[in-house]
Amino acid sequence: MSESVKQPTPAGNSIPAADLAPYIDHTLLKPDATLDDIRALCREAAQYSFASVCVNPAYVAAAVGFLKDTGVPVAAVVGFPLGATSPEIKAAETRDVVAQGAMEIDMVLNIGALRNGDYAVVYRDISAVVKAASNRAVKVILETAFLNTDQKIAACVLAKTAGAAFVKTSTGFGPAGATEEDVSLMRRIVGPDMGVKASGGIRDTETARRMIAAGADRLGASASVAIVKGP
Known about the structure:
Low-confidence stretches: 1-6
Mean pLDDT: 95
CATH superfamily: Aldolase class I
Shape: globular
Largest sheet: 8 strands, parallel, barrel
Radius of gyration: 16 Å
Number of strands: 8
Structural class: alpha/beta
CATH architecture: Alpha-Beta Barrel
Strand content: 15-25%
Helix content: 40-55%
Number of helices: 9
Number of domains: 1
CATH class: Alpha Beta
Strand order of the largest sheet: 1-2-3-4-5-6-7-8
């Protein structure tokens, strides 16, 4: 299994807002993001000690430079946001961002193959990224809004079997984001020893707390500063 970063223990709805920072991947994946936007993202991540920053591959090297000596790692997305490239392309993309300094990989699985029931294809897709990541944490994005319950369960089992470190709900670019029900289901399927990341639509402190109470030990958010400052 890909080596995961140390995860906070979920404590539910009693977590003080400021203590949510270690759960949050501070994220900027908009196509119009500029270098100044990435610089600001990294400055905030260092200031609040977020779990990581999550950026598109084109900005990995810059983010690594901005975060030098801060202790905040860079996560890069792969196969984003559709998941519809081949395992070979996802693996090559993974090797590229790792070479630039990415320490975590958020990959989108092959959603169409999953919906087709082509589980061997999905397994190969995830395994290729896990191997290319060289023991860095791989988070597998299910894009749960497109899946029924059986497909969500299958995706979790495949991700765990392929050696991923986390399963993740959403890209934030799909028709809906994380729900407590999906997070709870994913936690039940992967068990206590694998990470669950809730992402998409987490914009305030209470929503963040509910996702953690449901079983998430990592959150993806662009409204991270507002979350940790509280209502």
